[in-house]
Amino acid sequence: MHADLLYTGISIVKVSLDVRDNTPLAHQIKNLTWPDAIDSWNKKRQLTYKVGRTALFAFLEKYYKIDLNLHLNNDLAISYNEHGKPYFKSKEIYFNISHTDDYLFIIIAPYPTGIDVESIKARKSYQALKEKILTQEERNFLNEVYPNSLANPLAVSDEELERFFYLWTLKETLVKVTGKGLTGLNDFTYLPCSHKALHNDLKGVVCTYALPKKAVLSFYLENLAQLKEVNFYSYDYHNDIFTKGDFLGKKEPDFILKVDKS
What we know:
Blueprint: E1 11-16, H1 43-63, H2 68-71, E2 78-80, E3 86-88, E4 94-99, E5 103-109, E6 115-119, H3 126-133, H4 136-145, H5 148-151, H6 158-178, E7 188-191, E8 196-199, E9 204-211, E10 215-221, E11 231-236, E12 241-244, E13 255-261
Parallel strand pairs: 1-11, 8-13
Antiparallel strand pairs: 1-5, 2-3, 4-5, 6-10, 7-8, 9-10, 9-13, 11-12
């Protein structure tokens, strides 16, 4: 498939989701099939799955000039690793997809990468999430800065929630790069006070941005210089239109995590 790759940059595609809209997808990709179980999924899950896959293949068709009729079920057949991370059989194009309440994001790169978006909102399981996702050092860091939530778990401040979801997205992004699931949390140590992480396998950066509608986005690059080369697109799945432009509205991330090999 290498001869077909006319576009080999790093791209991030944003899709605004509206689960209330019943308009069918404008781009009906021939031979793109859905899982047998999709009819049993809820409406939101069906929409995010269909939009994510449609946007991914429509992008490859338009910008990589890939003949989907030729490659969709061959080099572009999607397989899954033991932890459920999807990847192309070809291994020449890497992608990752993430979604939350109002957004869906896709990152496409010539190397393994990851992206994560989360809505910043209070959750009943907040304390359990802290225990599950954060190390003891990271929890101590949050507790020192925001001690009130220890005494009253229901009184979590907006500032603490924002800091927690920043931590969550950057950690989830690194986990998604290696595709190891939650076991990947053991591959690195985050040092909150130094804005660094020590990883068993990776060296690069995680760039994090605050989004409108109280959400946070993180994605992985092999080095910070590549940020200037990232191409940003918005995709209108109702009309099958990609619009190029920096939807983040700013070049500098709100937070940069440097990742070094341990």
